[in-house]
């Protein structure tokens, strides 16, 4: 059974930084790609950053130059480094990891609150 555990969310002042982590557990699990999404109150879930199995990355325009996605395959963990945070970044952040067998898994979400 695969489980994703997210951590690193919290309250930060505008201009600050946070690093989110998403660790996958489960027999034979290996990451074939990963992404971070977010959902602000009253809004739809949106893609923030994605990394493909080949290492290519893409970002939402609103976070380009401020956020960075990376992964550590030895730890089955994907990270989202968030710098220069803005109040509009406030949301619940969800990770989505794709396993080597092609199935995607969602984390339960971690809340990021950016105060002005």
Average pLDDT metric: 94
Overall 3D form: globular
Alpha-carbon Rg, integer: 14 Å
Query: What is the overall number of helices?
Result: 0
Total E-strand runs: 11
Please state roughly what percent of the residues sit in beta strands, choosing from under 5%, 5-15%, 15-25%, 25-35%, 35-45% or over 45%: over 45%
Largest sheet: 7 strands, mixed
Provide the low-confidence segments as ranges. Answer: none
Order of helices and strands: EEEEEEEEEEE
What does this 3D model show about the protein?
The protein has 116 residues and is an all-beta fold. Helix content is 0%, strand content 56%. The chain is built from no helices and eleven strands. Strands 2, 4, 5, 6, 9, 10 and 11 form a seven-stranded mixed beta sheet that branches. The chain has a four-stranded antiparallel beta sheet with strand order 1-3-8-7, with no helix packed on it. Strand 9 (91-99) and strand 10 form a beta hairpin. The chain is globular.
Topology:
Layout: E1 3-7, E2 10-13, E3 18-25, E4 31-39, E5 46-51, E6 57-59, E7 67-72, E8 77-82, E9 91-99, E10 104-106, E11 110-115
Parallel strand pairs: 2-11
Antiparallel strand pairs: 1-3, 3-8, 4-5, 4-9, 5-6, 7-8, 9-10, 9-11
What would the keywords be for this entry?
seven-stranded mixed β-sheet, globular, mainly beta, four-stranded antiparallel β-sheet, 116 residues
Question: What's the short version?
Answer:
With 116 residues, the chain is mainly β. Helix content is 0%, strand content 56%.
């Amino acid at each position: 059974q695969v489980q994703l555990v997210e951590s690193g969310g919290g309250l930060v002042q505008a201009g600050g930084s946070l690093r989110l982590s998403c660790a996958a557990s489960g027999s034979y699990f290996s990451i074939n790609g990963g992404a971070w999404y977010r959902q602000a109150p009253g809004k739809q879930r949106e893609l923030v950053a994605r990394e493909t199995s080949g290492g290519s990355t893409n970002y939402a325009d609103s976070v380009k130059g401020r956020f960075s996605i990376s992964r550590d395959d030895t730890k089955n963990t994907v990270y989202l480094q968030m710098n220069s945070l803005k109040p509009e970044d406030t949301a619940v952040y969800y990770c989505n990891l794709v396993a080597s067998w092609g199935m995607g898994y969602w984390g339960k979400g971690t809340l990021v609150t950016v105060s002005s």
